[in-house]
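Help! Submission page says 'invalid entity' but I think these are all valid:
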Amino acid sequence: MAVLEILKYPAPALRRKCLPVERVTEQTAELARAMLATMHDAPGVGLAAPQVGENVRLIVVDVSVGKDPKQVHFLVNPEIESASGERIVEEACLSLPGVSEKIRRREAVRVRALNLDGEEVVLDAREVLAFVLQHEIDHLDGKLILDHLNKTKRDLVKRRLKKQARAAS
Ligand SMILES: [Zn+2]
């Protein structure tokens, strides 16, 4: 399975609001499987379609990082239906190399989505899985960890990332 390129901040694709998938097709499934391979290769616990330049509401999550196939979730058009509790969580992002910041997340979420067969699924998640789901669903609305920081911190991290991106190009 081919590994896709993961876009890094400040790639414009990371800031777009993604479009719903109107019909789950073999093409959707192919993209999802390529995203899984890319995420495992990185390695990471979650990946959203805009991170590989695809403007659609599709995320892949695997908090076991390839150890347990039962923990792989392909979610199409995921939506947080309800949430409870709060936690301060340290998060990183494959699109923000070197960034690790403490942000506020809900402790538990119920997510409604479609699977790759186009069937509706409901996922009740707590802690790590819940945090990853919130992180990936944020990506579908063009939202990054940065946007959860206060302005001073955000500007500092943005400056660092832009400098890094310039040095790499
Ligand atoms: Zn991310």
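Support: the input was valid. A stray whitespace character was the problem, and the output above is from the cleaned input. The chain is about 30% helix and 30% strand.
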